[in-house]
Amino acid sequence: MNCPTRSLVILKDIKRKIEECLLQYEGKLIWEKEDEQIVAEIMRRRFFPALITHKAWEGFHFAGHEIRITEATDCYGAVVWPSALVLCYFLETNSKQYNLLDKNVIEIGAGTGLVSIVASLLGALVTATDLPELLGNLQHNILQNTKLKCKHQPHVKELSWGIDLEKNFPRSSCHFDYIMAADVVYHHPFLDELLLTFDHLCKNDTVILWAMKFRLDKENQFVGRFQTLFDLEVISNFPSLNITLYKAMRKGRMKARPSQLMV
After folding, report:
1. Which end of the chain has fewer surrounding CB within 10 Å, N or C?
2. What's the pLDDT tens digit per position in 74-94?
3. Torsion of CA 161, 163, 169, 172, to 10 degrees
């Protein structure tokens, strides 16, 4: 190959690589714009009281209802975190693919109860669970926002991860179609117990919907440990929030069910 021909080949190769980089960059810009638009839509579902009240609360619009959530700012589990909004938005906008009507649903780490409330308003039979010190506020929010509005009145139940699971949720009689979790992985010493709880509650046909906010590497490694027991699919990703929404099922069971993921 003579020098001019070789130079032409090199130039073409450089041009191709530049075009590929430009396409990737344009794709990244489009992806980021879509992410920003969806996140903005999710955040528009939130509203605040016009006047300061003696009790802190936030309002949300989901499932055709105005939902008012009482918070406690001195407790991590009594605050509405963005992962809960992401999961609620998904449940509402994918109600055909993930039809909750008459489905048995348990939420672990329910906190303020927003996800459980939205699932109830969408027709599910919900059990909202959390630590004993959070149950009073959780019960208050659920009653205030679901009484006489739902087909099935949701239940509130204590669940300390990894403790008395068979006693309180016997495998023989407890069957959940869905397990829901929003922002349950963060800096706490109970990740082993959390995995044990997922394992205990999940049957072969149970679907886990889990909104995960990525923070520190130690907590992020939980995803790898989770995958030793469950098949995992990314449903949605929100880079601007560092939140990923997952669907999971027991190992080998994901392929046995027709995929319901929205393209």
Report:
1. C
2. 565 678 999 999 999 999 999
3. 120
